[in-house]
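We modelled the chain as a single entity of 682 amino acids. Its sequence is:
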Amino acid sequence: MSDILLPRIPVTEVFPVVEDGTLAAKATENEPLPIRATVFREGHDAFAAEAVLLDPDGVEHMRAPMADIAPGLDRYEAWVKPDRPGTWSFRVDSWSDPYATWRHDATIKVDAGVDVELMLEEGALLMERAIDGNALNNPLQKPLDTKDAEVLRDAAAHLRDTSRSVQQRLSAGVSSHVRAVFRAHPVRDLLGSSREYPLAVARERALTGAWYEIFPRSAGAFQREDGSWVSGTLKQASYELDRIAEMGFDVVYLTPIHPIGTTNRKGKNNTLVAYEGDPGSPYGIGSPDGGHDAIHPELGDFNDFDDFVERALELGLEVALDFALQCSPDHPWVTEHPEWFTTRADGSIAFAENPPKKYQDIYPLNFDNDYDGIYEAIRDVLEVWIEHGVTIFRVDNPHTKPVRFWQEIIADVHDTHPEIIFLAEAFTRPAMMRTLGAVGFDQSYTYFAWRTQKQEIEEYLTEVSTQTAHLMRPSFWPTTHDILTPQMTTGGTAIFAIRAMLAALGAPNWGIYSGYEFVENVQRPGFEEQNDNEKYEFRPRNWEDAEPLGITRLFTLLNAARAKHPALRQLHQLRIHPTSHPEIICFSKQVSGAFTESGNTDTVICIVSLNPHEGVSGTVHIDLNDLGIQTPGGHIRVVDELDGATYIWGSEGWVDLSPVTRLGHVFSVEPTIDLEPWTNRH
């Protein structure tokens, strides 16, 4: 028999739990999250359950009554909110509820004239038990304070008052005042608890952010009359920061800024031969000028980098740095530590391969040859950049390194720098993506770019907000420097606007690769990436030329809506709403007033056309009651965050969307009547 016994009132199938509690489920400061469990008991007596949230010191932070969310299946749920980062925990308490049992039985029996005096006396005795803090097999039950005790003492007296009618006596025991006391201070007979399960609570930026990606070498780059190029610099890249901040982005992401090797350097569009002046891929890291802990001389030095970081912070931007663990053949590690790489039968070091692809300009690390040595070197590299103000690392291809390595090194970094955030760039099998999140990655790239049809978008939004939210925090990117899906090549400005809206509204964390404002949509033949790819050449841009396309303004409006509405910055509470047109998608995001500073529930209804070529129109169906925003008249007032227009909506609304006029709505529901959809009622 197992040494671990279930509580007297069984609690099973607790959520969120990762690997039976061996790994911590993800949570974020100030974001509500659901706790669920299956709770039941023998017989017909009433029972209750609460989710108990414990802070990093093990002190009880809050208790939340659990409500039945699947009648007949015994599935219960409550919402809790940690208020600071750290290693938290939670459990589920269950108990027998004698007051609910008595109220149910007494109502039936008294009405039927069965055991009337006995039932009324049992009610009075229960009131006295509650006053004294006397619960069955529960030494933690506390006596009531004077005010609540007086309410129950008066009720007990009325239950025993034979001068009153039977119904008057019963009414005294089930009055709203009595019920309120028992809601606040239930008699917890047979109290028991599940195990305590860990929650890794991260700071808010781990969940929510608006990223803007740049290649620093393109900023200020120019071509001489002879055709040769002059690289941009970190100093010139810092001049871009004001523009990025003005659009409402809060993370600036730099592709690798390290020295680039010359051996087997890639040329334009990933050709195997580089010509004079080709800058090479910044992912071919390492040269005689240094490796991962160095800066490409053409970009500047650490003083320039420090100035870049300082200016970014002044503008409210955090700096994310690409962290790509592979080496050019010219990397210092290749000569200093050849054992860190895979040696082939002919004595050569193996290039990175993803058959049939070959990456002749990089060597992958072989962690199995000298795990400790490689670990210490990488840990030292991370420390260098942390000391220079980097707070976020976008990790390139983490799925090609051992999962255990990431589990160890992320925990190691978080021990001394808990504010550091790691984003996993792993477009790979679901098991690997989920596990990388589970072992420590704070954020994860997703399949969003490839989800294009209404049904698959709806399914994916539901998946990342419910099924995997405790394992990985999603980041939505319409394009990256590596990805340009076929959809983006044919829809012009409209499809770029549509995908930006879906990304910014569908996930609390989203990102844009610079140049998106220009609708750069020409694919390299045979590949899902841009032609004339910035990975292999300089690509300076005149940003004023992008203004007429309107994407810049759209970014600004979307990021302003996200900053205004906490609902758009949380992950868990997303609902899909039916529409009559197959190319109109509607979803809402919501935060209960119990968890907002204003005390008002924040609800945002997002409606987006999926057709970049033609106008679409149809009906949107909103279950106002399900959202907790039902009004006596059945109407709500909504304000479009994209243009400030106000509308009166009901359970059905008509939308007319077009690439020419508008492609979507971002409706903020004005507070009218707040029914608190997450409040648990008995």
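As a brief sanity check on the tokenised model: Residues 205-326+368-541 form a domain with the TIM Barrel fold (CATH 3.20.20.80). The longest strand covers residues 86-96.
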